[in-house]
Amino acid sequence: TGAVCGAALAISGFASAYEDVLTETKHELKQSKHELNKAKDRYRAQTRKIRALQRMMNRLATRISRAEGEILQLESRLDKLQRQMMKLQIRAALLQAKLDERSRQAYMSGGVPILYVLTATSAADAAARMSFLTELNRRDAVLAGKIQDTTGRVARIEGEVVRGRQIVELRKRSLEMDRKELQRKMAQFRRLVARLRGRIE
Questions:
Q1: What is the torsion angle, in degrees rounded to the nearest 10, for the CA atoms of residue 152, residue 157, residue 159 and residue 164?
Q2: 3-state SS class at 92
Q3: Residue-wise burial string across 22-55, b where 16 or more C-beta atoms lie within 10 A, e elsewhere
Q4: What is the pLDDT of residues 72-129, one digit of tens each?
Q5: Which residues are CB-contacts of 53 (< 8 A; sequence separation ≥ 6)?
Q6: Are the C-beta atoms of 109 and 116 separated by less than 8 Å?
Q7: Are 88 and 146 in contact (CB under 8 A)?
Q8: Are 161 and 84 in contact (CB under 8 A)?
Q9: Burial class (CB in 10 A: 0-12, 13-18, 19+), 179
Q10: 57 touches 185 (CB < 8 A)
Q11: Cα separations (Å) of 144 from 86, 95, 105, 133, 190?
Q12: Average pLDDT of the residues in 14-22
């Protein structure tokens, strides 16, 4: 009976120790599951952040690409306008030189059209001279009109070029800001991906 009691006590002690180990293991397992669920939640949160960041980077990249294309088009248009303006400036200078030459010739020939008419040898000669002076005045007026028109076109194109350059400058600043923002987002993206790899491991 002493041996049986000893065995019963040993079995009872063993069963009690087994229960303690089982309880502790269950507790550890529950704790591990809880930690795993927390890790999964963090993983999902980081995955959501990464996806949101990817969308933002895609939008920025698209905006940068469009801005670069627009800037190229604007600069190309400004180059054309600049060439057009230079041609018009040359034309205006040539027309002005022609008008100046006409004025110089008129001055050299006395500068008084009425004397030119009065010194005519006959009525027919006076009429011819009047007609000639009228034609010269008409041509001078046409020439002056062309100069004014050309000068006006130069001024309009010049204004358009100035405005265009301002727009290009603003677009370039905006583009530079977007590029810097994209670089920041990419650095943030790399950090999040590295952290996520750590979580997965």
A1: 170
A2: helix
A3: eeeeeeeeeeeeeeeeeeeeeeeebeeebeebee
A4: 999 999 999 999 999 989 988 888 888 788 777 666 655 545 555 556 567 776 676 6
A5: 185, 188, 189, 192
A6: yes
A7: no
A8: no
A9: middle
A10: yes
A11: 19, 8, 16, 16, 68
A12: 65
Neighbouring C-alpha atoms within 13 Å toward the C-beta of 142: 6
| pLDDT at res. 117 | 54
Q: Cα(138)–Cα(141) distance, rounded to whole angstroms? A: 5
- Tokens standing for 31? 């704790």
Distance separating alpha carbons of residues 85 and 87, to the nearest angstrom: 5
Termini Cα distance of the chain:
58
Residue reference for tokens 């011819």: 128
Element housing 122 (H / E): none
pLDDT of res. 47: 85
DSSP 1: -
**DSSP class of 120:** -
Alpha helices (runs of H) in the chain, residue ranges in sequence order: 2-108, 113-118, 123-200
Q: In degrees rounded to 5, what are phi and psi of residue 156?
A: -65, -45
